[in-house]
Amino acid sequence: MITQMRKMFSGESRVFYLYRFISLAGTSLVYAIEDRGPPLGVKIGIILVLFIFATWITDMYTQSGKASRTIKITVGLEMTGMMVLHLLSGGMDSPFLWCVFNPAWMAASYLSSAYCWFMMLSYFLFITAFSYFFANGQMETLGSMLLSENRFYLMLLFMTLTIQLLAGVKNRLEIANARTNESMEHMKSLYQIVEAATHSDSENLKIIFAEFALKLTKLRMSFFWDVNGHAKPDQLITQGVLPIGIETSLSEAFDMQEAELRRLEFSRLMSLAEYGDFLVMPIRSSTRFWGVMGVKIEPASYEEGRQGYIQQLGFLSELCSVILERHQLERIENQLMIIEEQNRIADEMHDSVSQYIFGIVYAVHSLSRKWKEISREQIKEQLQLIQESSVAASKELRSTIYSLSSRKNGGDFWITTVKSHLDSVSKLHAVKVNLHVTGDDHRLHVNYQKALFRIISESTGNAIRHGHSTLIKVELRIKPDEVSLSVLDNGSGFSVKERLSDPKTVGLGVNNMELLVQSLGGTISIQSAQGKGTHIQLTIPFQPQDNKELNELQMMG
């Protein structure tokens, strides 16, 4: 906080501090050379004390928070110091009179209008009373004194009004800038949600959306309750800081109110006696009810933030229902594609291989019945036909298998997809991406291929978006019993310990990668530091695909 405030004051108030010390130096010089007042030695002492006081006040401003109690006290102290200085240097005739613009500037810029004008009125009454009762050598009336100093008072008035006007404009600009940043953060979160959901299975989506609910609302706890997850230990997914026993209480409350939750159309506030209030939002698509997501409402932010939380959860629930619906449709589409492919293969084998096999069976049956009645030459001729039919059936079967196997037909689909994706990323973001693969990628099962593709995509995406990398090295090694992946970038890096220890800042991509690696029984490590890039390494044990039957069929040909 102190670092941020120092940056704020060093930036937008540099002119103010320059004016502070220039005005102090100028008025001090005038005070030192004028004839009236105490001796020169006393004046120099007053000036030294004044500079020490000004330096101390400046440090207090730098270390105080914007519109905080500290800055109010600091403005009050400086205003009091100005009053004492005027007492010692001649009241309205003091050359330090114009230094009062220093605290007036700070009060008008960073404090409320009421506090600012209270300080100005107090100063006005004090300096006028002192000048009238104690420094009124010519016995002027109060009215004539005010008229003689009207330029100073008007200048002070107009300057305070101008600063307040400019401060109001600046505050409105800051609010607009904050809203713009918030909108940009939401857009960024939307992009991250869509990307994470695209590269995740349906089972992991509830974890992703629970994490994003925590990230968007900036509260301490979020959850996702899957109504279709009965008899599963992970029906309720929670993220953030969890009081002891809260998961059990939430699960019981959802189970008891399931019928009511299924009819829920909008958000609802649910209370648990021991744990407080929870904002619940239904997740419903055009075809089904998926469950609810929500957050634990903190008492301190309940009134001012409830509407914002409703909007954020509403946005997430609609997006979640769309993505879940899309995953469901993709699953159905994949099943239909499998059925269609099964039917095609069945028809193809029926029209080719089964016909040959039927002919072989019929020929063998006929030969077994008549071999005693036919000549040796006829038997030899019949066996020759059976052999030719067998060879033809084997070729047809092998041809069908080859057409289904990317390895057999010379295809290189998976690694080509990875290369194509990284090439697109490289061109889109003007980043150099080097891919090096050793080993036979055809030995990887499709589950490993999908997981590795998602991890490569997620890690390179994070290196570009968050690390602002210009060079990424991806190395994939496929060994007989394991596969290892290394992704190294030259980005800005981060503190791994701090990032992973805070659920509000930990990247969702990191969690997705950890889930994928753990689901395959592997291990993952992340090494990074500020300004030194990031290195992600993982190792996954695996059993290669069994090609024994295909090899035997190939040998038959």
TrEMBL record:
It is a multi-pass membrane protein. Its main location: membrane. GO terms for molecular function: kinase activity. Keywords: 4Fe-4S, ATP-binding, Cell membrane, Coiled coil, Cytoplasm, Iron, Iron-sulfur, Kinase, Membrane, Metal-binding, Nucleotide-binding, Transferase, Transmembrane, Transmembrane helix, Two-component regulatory system. The chain crosses the membrane at residues 15-33, 39-58, 108-132, 152-169. It comes from the Bacteria. Signal peptide: none annotated. Its EC number is 2.7.13.3. This is Oxygen sensor histidine kinase NreB.
